[in-house]
């Protein structure tokens, strides 16, 4: 292995360790901070894997490095979701996805060490295709989800970061995976390996600077003693704020398919200024959460009503601007802890018990 490439690999690992420590510290030991550290571990493992492939003996440390290398696409997915989705939680499905990637990776590794399994099939090619195309699918899924959420994101620095994230980090990962598929299990040339490692080290260097300067503006989580981005507010258009509140109180939130752009057009305001008002003044990081704050409040009153004029749940959902019952059920349960049916039933039980004469 070329000495310059080897040096760059370990420089990258050292930088990743710094980024991981900064993330955990500056993001106040939050889930997203830990996931940044996990992703750094995965990238560091990717840098070291070619070294242990030549000089390793598959001891415990080597297995741990391979684990990080094989799990990298899943770590990338978890990191992107934790950054861009305010409702993100770790779920059993994430563990199952990681287990699948690890199984495919170690299957591939076992065949490289011990030869293909004798199943009457070319399992060497099958293991490679399964691993690389699964990785490709996960990365594409991550990038599509990150870009699709841009329209409802009210945190301006995070909206801009989505573009950088998709265009640079994610796109380069796609190039790397596509190149590995093209190589079909062959080792990359020294020139390609050097370019790959140099680009990764460059990314990590930029990430180090970004973590030091801009992380709290994207995550809205600052280190102790530092102001959060939401606390350093730009001047807000008070007339726009009043117009917005009047529109929503008049039932504007009931419009089906209402978007931040459509709302800005109705208020004859610039979209960026409206985002600043809803995020900076009202404290919402997501446009759907802003709409749901009005819709769920209205739904709660309608569901609590009793008598012959009581509306069906589907009618309530459609009248409040939801395109179907599914999004309404999810939003209502997230806000109240109960489905609309459970919420209505709890009021019926209370009203019936109050109406029952005491003996």
Task: Walk me through what this model shows.
Residues 242-346 form the HTH araC/xylS-type domain. The chain crosses the membrane at residues 6-24, 31-53, 59-80, 92-109, 129-149, 161-179, 191-212. Keywords: DNA-binding, Membrane, Transcription, Transcription regulation, Transmembrane, Transmembrane helix. InterPro entries: Homeodomain-like_sf, HTH_AraC, HTH_AraC-typ_CS, Tscrpt_reg_AraC-type_HTH. The chain is mainly alpha-helical. The chain has 2 domains: 3-219, Rhopdopsin 7-helix transmembrane proteins, CATH 1.20.1070; 238-355, Homeodomain-like (Arc Repressor Mutant, subunit A, Orthogonal Bundle). It has 16 helices and no strands.
Q: What topology emerges from the helices and strands here?
A:
Blueprint lengths: L2 H24 L4 H25 L4 H11 L1 H13 L7 H23 L8 H26 L7 H28 L6 H24 L1 H5 L18 H12 L10 H7 L4 H11 L5 H18 L8 H7 L5 H12 L3 H16 L4
């Amino acid at each position: 292995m070329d000495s310059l490439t080897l040096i760059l690999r370990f420089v990258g690992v050292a930088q990743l360790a710094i980024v991981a420590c900064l993330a955990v510290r500056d993001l106040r030991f939050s889930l997203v901070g830990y996931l940044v550290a996990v992703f750094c571990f995965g990238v560091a493992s990717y840098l070291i894997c070619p070294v242990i492939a030549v000089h390793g003996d598959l001891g415990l440390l080597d297995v741990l490095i391979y684990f990080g290398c094989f799990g990298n696409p899943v770590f990338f997915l978890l990191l992107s979701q934790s950054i861009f989705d305010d409702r993100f939680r770790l779920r059993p499905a994430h563990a199952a996805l990681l287990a699948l990637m690890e199984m495919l990776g170690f299957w591939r590794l076992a065949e490289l060490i011990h030869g293909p399994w004798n199943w009457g099939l070319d399992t060497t090619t099958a293991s490679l295709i399964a691993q690389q195309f699964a990785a490709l699918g996960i990365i594409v899924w991550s990038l599509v989800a990150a870009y699709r959420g841009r329209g409802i994101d009210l945190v301006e620095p995070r909206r801009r970061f989505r573009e950088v994230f998709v265009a640079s980090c994610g796109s380069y990962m796609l190039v790397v995976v596509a190149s590995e598929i093209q190589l079909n299990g062959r080792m990359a040339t020294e020139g390609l390996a050097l370019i790959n490692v140099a680009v990764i080290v460059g990314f990590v260097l930029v990430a180090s600077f970004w973590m030091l300067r801009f992380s709290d503006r994207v995550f809205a989580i600052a280190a102790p003693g530092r102001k959060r981005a939401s606390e350093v507010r730009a001047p807000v258009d008070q007339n726009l704020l009043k117009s917005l509140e009047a529109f929503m109180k008049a039932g504007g939130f009931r419009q089906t398919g209402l978007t931040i752009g459509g709302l800005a057009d109705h208020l004859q305001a610039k979209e960026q200024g409206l985002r600043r008002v809803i995020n900076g003044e009202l404290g919402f990081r997501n446009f759907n959460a802003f709409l749901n704050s009005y819709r769920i409040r209205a739904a709660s009153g309608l569901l609590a009503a009793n008598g012959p004029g009581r509306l069906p749940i589907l009618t309530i959902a459609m009248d409040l601007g939801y395109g179907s019952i599914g999004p309404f059920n999810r939003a209502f349960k997230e806000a109240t802890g109960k489905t609309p049916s459970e919420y209505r039933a709890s009021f019926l039980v209370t009203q019936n018990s109050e109406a029952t004469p005491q003996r």
